[in-house]
Amino acid sequence: MKAVIFAGGVGTRLWPLSRRHSPKQFEKVIGDKSTLQLAVERLLPDFKWEDIYIGTGERYLSMVTSQLSSLPPKNVIGEPAMRDVGPAVGLVIANLLKKDPKTPMVILWSDHLIKKNDLFKNILKVSEEYIKQNPDKIIFISQSPRFASQNLGWIEYGAAEFKINGFNFHSFQNFSYRPNPVDAEKYFKSGNHAWNLGYFVTTPSFIWKLFQTHQPEMFLGLKKIYESVGTDNYQKVLAEIYPTLKKISFDNAILEKINSQNAVVLSEDLGWSDVGAWEALKEALQTSPNQNVTRGKVLLTDCEDDLVYNYTDQMVVAIDLDGYIVINTHDVVLVCNKNSVPKIKKLVENLADSENENLV
């Protein structure tokens, strides 16, 4: 089985730690390792290094190879331009298709936390065996919801169609992204909705056929890249073709168009969290709802439900803060209410065209 971990996003929701020159997946957000390193670690030793691939932007190639020194350099697939996840997946598939078109593969992300790693590995093993027998299917791996999240995608599933080694595989019904509060509460209570992690197991050949069917124009460009894989012409063709591909998410390009008969859903409590935003990181690390989560030199008095991360040698002191995010880096101090974190992305976008562009 092959594993592909995507590590190409800029990560504006974790600003000011995550910057254009060093995005969140390369930073030490949890403990003393980057989330990219943690994502690879949880696959070992079940996966060999040569079976792990990283999809990232060309500007981050050196960061990937320096943090993952045991990874074969040829397994790092660089995107010469940012064209969203649709083309990024297509590029990885074009590379894998030349080598192992029918081998099961799993798509993963570099900024997630999984606490139940043994369960996660068992799910991958079971999914691999199913896909070996059903190479034109796709398995969506999802997290049973802990609360009515409005910031995550949801996946709706139907009745259990079959069971393998104790895991129920359900029929696939529908996707929903960032629902309103009423719908989020409805999904949470329904018993047939789960958080959509963006994790799926399938084969390169199946995804390739979906690009050919649902994105014919993009497919023509990807086919040219595919034909150049393994040749001296690859980098030249990639640089010419990839920046011209349509900028579109993989969900919009492919997943939303999949025939439900080709998809099944596996929903379990993996202890999963998306740590790509400060409030999500706090939820992942806290052991009780009102607990403070801190890092570095921090002194809190009469504070609760705060996340305070200090990346400097200065002491950060706070009094009577309730539900706040405080991030202190060498050149920026961010202070905001926990509920205001979604506004960070817009703030960073505005900085990009200002006198403070160096802070992006």
From TrEMBL:
InterPro entries: ManC/GMP-like_b-helix, Mannose-6P_isomerase_type2, NTP_transferase_dom, Nucleotide-diphossugar_trans. Gene3D superfamilies: Spore Coat Polysaccharide Biosynthesis Protein SpsA, Chain A. Pfam families: ManC_GMP_beta-helix, NTP_transferase. Residues 300-351 form the MannoseP isomerase/GMP-like beta-helix domain. It comes from the Bacteria. GO terms for biological process: GDP-mannose biosynthetic process. Residues 2-287 form the Nucleotidyl transferase domain. SUPFAM superfamilies: Guanosine diphospho-D-mannose pyrophosphorylase/mannose-6-phosphate isomerase linker domain, Nucleotide-diphospho-sugar transferases. GO terms for molecular function: mannose-1-phosphate guanylyltransferase (GTP) activity. This is Uncharacterized protein. It comes from Candidatus Gottesmanbacteria bacterium RIFCSPHIGHO2_02_FULL_39_11.
